[in-house]
What does this fold into?
Amino acid sequence: MANVSDVKDEPGQPPALTSLSLAEAAQKVSSKEQIITPFDVSGGVDEQGKPKAIDYDKLVDTFGSQRIDKPLLERFEKVTGHKPHRMLRRGLVFSHRDLNLILDKYEKGIPFFLYTGRGPSSDSMHVGHTIPFEFTKYLQDVFDVPLVIMLTDDEKFFHTPKLSLKDVYKFTIQNAMDIIAVGFDMKKTFIFADTEFVDGGHASAFNTNVREMGKRTTINQIRGTFGFNDSNNIAEFNFPAMQSATAFATSFPFIFGTDAKKVAKVPCLIPCAIDQDPYFRQCRDNAPKIGYLKPAIIHSVFLPSLRGRESKMSASDADSSIFLSDTDNQIKKKVGKAFSGGQDTAELHREIGGRTTVDVPFQYLTFFMEDDDELERIRVAYEKGEMQSGEMKMACTKELQAFVTSFRERRKTVTDEVRKEFMRPRQLVFKGMPDEKQRQEARSRRIKIIEEELELLKREE
It folds into this structure.
């Protein structure tokens, strides 16, 4: 059979219809697998060319993680004495690596620390960005442990051609203030921007771990994990070693002390969205090679785009997102246009009900509404047709407006002085912190570094 391009169309016919029927053309539509990486999130396309929802069960199998099941949740509650967060209860935090080992250590009184982060790509975060941070705050409160937050401004600069370092650093400062407004405990939280911290005098141990990980990470590993090719710049290939280094307590002697042998045994738990897992698979593969513990990981799902479950909310697409800077009226308009699981007419909706599994406003309620009983009441009423789509959107609007309003009030209290204190390398306060002798050694070390830098500056005069 001749190729389509080899056959001339008959006069008066649309191009190619004489050489390839519509049915044959339909068969040519190829399905696409879902893509979940730190740089691209898509649910894929089916055989009919329709976008598909993200399949989280398939991700668990593909990534080789474990589902957070009922027995693990029961153990979590027993060990901590706290009711699991609504995101745990509803399966929105759904997957893990070695969370059971963290619970083992906590039960034995062995300290650990939390590590999460953000790649600043816009001057205002959207509500989807708050999901892992809100959950991380819950973990910090429940376990009473220190937290390190990494702002990967360098990665955004490496990976986004249109962004300058100046742009990204401006985003970093604003995003840091947004993150602080989530409500983290300053005494237990250290936030750093890569470009600022790594080039400063406090990152010697951190940079040592970057080099150790870099030496043990191959180009083939990075290609296989991230899909990089010859068009990616060399900084992108190196960055995974940087993101890995934050998972080791030895990178922060001013927090955990200078006894490297002892500090190397401090475990790390990383709450993050599932798209960040490739970075930490690399980290877990290579950590034992330098005598470090593999970090434990706990994964959250994505907050869907306003357009539907096929993609996540994205800062680069304003129409798909609700920003923390949006006004009440903007939130109302955006939710009003959100993809609905309602029927085409009110009569049909009353007859067969709505589809909560695809209804974006209901999905948002599962993330932000605390009351389990009220959420279940709404679900049942919508699926029975007793609640119309407009009512669902009104309920979602009310919840999101309250969430964003509360955030805005907290954000007003975050001054630049507060931000600078969160981002200042310092001793955090937590159970199992270094003793006075170790803290004095760490202070002396920092003073020496500062004095050496001042001496170098004086020489330049």
The CA atoms of residues 329 and 401 lie 9 Å apart. The two ends are 80 Å apart (CA to CA). Confidence is low (pLDDT under 50) at residues 1-27.
